[in-house]
Amino acid sequence: MPSECLFRLRTWRWRLPASLGLIMSLTTPTSSEPLPVVISWRQGESAASYLLRATSRNQLSLAWLRHAAGVPEGGALRASDSPLLAWLTSTDKHRLMDAFAAPGRWNGRPSVVMNGQTILRSTAIRSTLKPQLCPLCVRETGYCQLIWEFAHITVCPVHHVNMVDFCAQCGRSLVWDRPAIDMCRCMRLIGLSNSQNVWAPESLLWQYNTYLANRLAGEGIWKWPGVPAWLDFLSLDGVFQIVRAFGARPGPFAKPMDHSTRKLTTARSQQICIRGLERLARLELDRDLSSEVQEGELVSLAKRSFRANDTDVATWLLSRLFGSGGVVKAFTPSLMAINPRQLDLF
Ligand SMILES: [Zn+2]
Ligand SMILES: [Zn+2]
């Protein structure tokens, strides 16, 4: 057993009252041994899905695993817990770490690496405490995919249905602490929501989700009429940020929707994406969108990106929508020092 794991197990046992520790030792397997039933990974599976399947196959709960790993009650299991979690489930710790949204640093600032993508803004990734899934995929394959943790994935590219982040039976948000991968904590199967929409292949939203899924799978970028071709120049971090900048305001001059990770639901994220895609389509028709776009999000991308194209496109959009002075200047004088290359996107 790795030494850091032993230390954490000792810490956990020390925290337990003696009587509770005795009861647990009589009723549950000891956490000083790996789980007896070992499962294998499925393609593109998320860490939380793997851990939930591993514990339920052993007739245990994620709460047990969290206790065994020394994670506080109700807390999320994280990439930093991988050494002990991998040991408990008899898997490779690097394989497990890759299936988490792992904290990273970019230019000294916090970032997240997930599915091989560097993401600078936490709003692009859903809270680990608020999972979403496609009930039809889960029914067919028996696991949850890592790409479902990206906030802009709101439609299943395979089944064309909305991702689901709450239980249609009990109305509560889905959580990872549930009896089985396809079952809500109310003990009923997780199904499609009652107001289920099936998205046609012509819809901007399905095309955008399929485009993202292809990019996240590292496949060639297919052309979709509903997705501006110039988004291909950008990192996915840049794509998410631009769609959000265009979609966050419900209407002209309206206050932008709160899309912080804590508040983000599938429905809210989907509304932002639909508006963002519709406005991007209108941009190509040369419409004035200055009252509908959230300029602060574009400024953020212009100032902080890890790909020159992201900065260039954000700066170009700012000058096209808001002119070279005015709003842009008020936001950040330093932005005016950026000299965007001549971009010919349309
Ligand atoms: Zn599906
Ligand atoms: Zn339920």
Automatic annotation (TrEMBL):
Start and end residues of each TniQ domain: 39-161
Q: Write down the InterPro entries for this protein, in alphabetical order.
A: TniQ
Pfam families assigned to the protein according to its UniProt record, in alphabetical order = TniQ (PF06527)
Q: How is this protein named in the record?
A: TniQ domain-containing protein
Provide the species name: Rhodoferax sediminis
